[in-house]
Amino acid sequence: MYSTSYSRRPLRVLTFTTLFPNSEQPSHGVFVENRLRHLVASGEVESVVVAPVPYFPSTARCFGDWAGYARVDRQEMRHGLAIHHPRFPVIPRVGMSTGPALLAAATISLVRRLLAKDRGFDVIDAHYFYPDGVSALWIGRHLRRPVVITARGTDINLISRYALPRRAIRWGIANADRLIAVSEALKHALVALGAVPDGVEVLRNGVDLSMFRPTDRRVARQALGLTRPTLLSVGHLIERKGHDRVIEAMRQLPDFDLMIVGEGPEREALGHLARGVGVTDQVRLLGARPHEMLPEIYGAADALVLASSREGWANVLLEAMACGTPVVASNIWGNPEVVKTAASGVLTEHNTPEGIARAVRTLFANLPARAATRAYAEGFSWDDTTRGQIALFHCVIARHRTGQRRN
Question: How many folded domains does the chain comprise?
């Protein structure tokens, strides 16, 4: 248990992560921003954000996403948070191995200046274990500040498969002042990599119940031109999100339509797939949509389908449920911790087009009331996570000041 006898002044936290929205990518890492916004709203924490972006020399749009990095503002304000976007080099072919060193070298001067400025900061709060968390730990040791690292999912369930990153992650596990996992499954993975169970705190992501809430379905469906039962798939258009499996499942669901929200390198391939399997009349690729527009889209859909092959904690599940929309989700780690009752939705037995189609039929055979789905989501506010972070930071800072290491 953590002490709840806190000092009067707010804690000063430096948030360090490459997963954070910016002027060119307003939805990038929005789950990190959301957690931080609720933490700062408690009034017990102040934060400045260091969110590095890859260096690129040209803003010419012909260079695609890389040019977008060059256009990111060096400093910006979002929701009252001061955000710095220093540049760090990304070297093709060797970036996986050199990432932590390059990231630390490119950002330590800025972090040192922030430490010397005004009132400095008490603790570094790093998100995404590799390279971000490892880099933050190097910086923290150099500047004598405690470091908390939050594992998010792919950083542990994918990157740790590679030898050099795995070694660095294990070093980070052994030397961080505290570890946070966003799901029990992710905690088990950290323990398998060498973490002491008592040294890992599970602080799940929550959902903003004021933003994600039921809307006027009739108006929302009319705006989107929906006339039939409609499924929704939301996420970056990359292989692991499984949009292709949902598209293929539509062949077995001829009485359903599908909307896909997101952008990414797989967009053209997904369009070709829809044509190839003969479901173009059922499938609409809506592209990226601003985060604040998602509640109307969730509310218009009859069910969300998440066919990911890997997740830490899938925020889209709770966002949909908070809007009254039940879900069909792949039975991968993290998802069973979110989809636990009939009111929330169903898990697939197999993450295949056939398994997805069967799960959709199962859900619609006993579709929960939308009010019941919303009520279930209300148990996942950010309040518990915010309280857990505040207690954890106080404990880490107190131990650091007395020269104690974590358990």
Answer: 2
